[in-house]
Amino acid sequence: MGIFDGRRIVLGVTGGIAAYKAVEVCRRLIDAGAHVSPILTKGAEKFIGRATFDALASEKVQTSLWEEEHPIPHTNLGQKADLILVCPATARLLSDYRTGRSADLLTATLLATRAPVIVCPAMHTEMWEQPSVQENIQELVKRGVEIVGPDQGRLAGGDDGAGRLSDPVSIVAAVEKVLNSGLNSKTQDFSGLQVLVSAGGTKEPICPVRYIGNRSSGKQGHAIALEAATRGASVVCVTTEPSRAPNHPNLQVVAVETADEMAKAVFSEAPKSDLVVMAAAVADFTPIIKSEKKIKKSEECLEIRLEPTVDILASLGSSHTGKQILVGFAAETNDLEKNAKKKLEAKGIDLIVANDVSAENTGFNYDTNAVTLFDLAGRKTEFPLADKRDIAQAILDAALKLKVNGHEEIGKK
Ligand code: PMT
Prior knowledge:
413 residues; single chain; 35% helix; 2 domains; Rossmann fold; 14 helices; alpha/beta; binds ligand PMT; eight-stranded mixed sheet
């Protein structure tokens, strides 16, 4: 797993000779697991072809406020980003960013974000030393923008001096530092909250070799855990897929396999938690007898008797204090609303995320999901097909509203 797994980085490239080094930066971010959305300015396109970034990055290059698929590309990019990296940044970019001038897609995105921003200036020494450029830099630093470089060294045209773009390794190290600083989220609205998330599908052993499992990859639960951690929560993620779990300083991973192990881990962490999200696909039944030796092949039919597992969520719901918010999922293939509402009530929880796992690109193992939220005040909110991280954001927004306002207030809105 990469150190930037699940992180969304907008890579803005402006028009300077150092633009070619942004390719190396992009590759390193991708190798470390980041989702990279590249934006090229018109100037950048004079130095480097968009086909290079199209091939390397996670998404196709975007260049314009007007010609993209999304009707408002700058807010779409800015709101989703965990970090915006401008590499290289020209004197023009620094000036537009400082003065709040929305001159193109990149500057508009910089204005439409709450994510941290790293700017890597690169230009000739004379330009870099201009008082106007230095004033812009100082003002951006005051506003919390991280400036990386420039370095001393060889410049275009055979010159030597200050203004050379920092090397890609240092730039990626700066990205890591900012993303791990704990101040890296769009907002720290979960700061001070303890969040418990379950993820993945449990594996119920039949014998030392075989088990009864399900198709859950852990992606949705992990996305929720990472989203909560980046928003400042202290997160425990109980997962059957620990090797796929995201890295974040606010996130502790607890590895489990069976429903019984998951129940023990959840019951031990839940009393300390302000919010519990059960995204895991927990087996409803487990073999009564687990053979100690591998069951040998035979011509006879094999009978495996199953007994119900503990319903973790319902147990938490039965001693629900009201201070804690309990969120469950309902994975359904039919009668989504009816079944989800039934589970909301039966399990004694606050919010249920109804997941039609038979719909296209939805549910088990996909990177995308589509869900409908039902809460106790009778409110129904639909979230159409989107990246699992966006769905995670929507679920946490709804859970936080419940935590802050309670069900009555939510119902009125
Ligand atoms: O992991 P992915 O590949 O990303 O897929 C995501 C997902 C489809 C697994 C996820 O979005 C989802 O729907 N999770 C819930 C799966 C499930 O088990 O649903 P259920 O309707 O059977 O269970 C209802 C709720 O009770 C769930 O919150 C479940 O965690 C909980 N439960 C179920 C059984 C049990 N013994 N104890 C429980 O706590």
